[in-house]
């Protein structure tokens, strides 16, 4: 909900006071929406769960041989819980919010479902890395060793034949077939190190409105269903029930309901 507000109302983080933007969550509205008798405590728990949560942007082009380059942003810089007043205020990192809104929700769409149809965790991790660059360019290079370390791949993948057969080719094919980018790659050896040069074009695909696959975890189901609501796609009553049952897990994972989700759940 808060993120949707920021997407609709972009901010200039350099012009914000103290580098943060705030969102108030009112106890009475939360209690009414979620039929909760412990709204204040649940909101406080959600605020506490956000403590220390980070978004990390890896910058492989700036890696050294010994160390990885990255930018790390915490979601929140402060949280204020005022039970007597019936309000909890989340103070979000303005620079991170500015980055997210600048890419016109691409990053947010990934977090809540653009990768939902990918068939493996490896595909999702590669897609995540590509999407961090997609708003600024249409190509990027990652070293094979960087990907092995970043995605926690088995040591056997250090053999290029295994890396190519078990990770690279199936992941690229999966992403090209099921997501919003048509991904391709070439291999390049620089000195003694292998690099994969990725290139892509944006594509528009028809979204499926089928019920979420049962092999997804309850939280993953809730995230994908919520992404469909954000995209204003058709959602079944069964899917809404799945989202409702898993709202606590969704909130504690950092998820925030969009206005479409609030309306749909209220109408149940």
Record the SSE blueprint.
Blueprint: H1 2-8, E1 20-26, H2 27-34, H3 39-49, E2 54-58, E3 70-74, E4 76-82, E5 87-93, H4 94-102, H5 106-114, H6 121-131, E6 139-143, H7 144-150, H8 160-178, E7 181-190, E8 193-202, H9 218-230, H10 237-245, H11 247-252, H12 259-266
Antiparallel strand pairs: 1-5, 2-3, 4-5, 6-8, 7-8
Distance between the termini: 18 Å
What gross morphology would you assign? Answer: globular
The pLDDT mean sits at 77
The amount of helix comes to 40-55%
Uncertain residue segments:
103-113, 207-215
Please state roughly what percent of the residues sit in beta strands, choosing from under 5%, 5-15%, 15-25%, 25-35%, 35-45% or over 45%. Answer: 15-25%
SS element count, helices = 12
Instruction: Provide the domain count.
Output: 3
Structural class: alpha+beta
Number of E-state strands: 8
Task: Provide a concise account of the structure shown.
It contains twelve helices and eight strands. The chain has 268 residues and is α+β, with helices and mostly antiparallel strands.
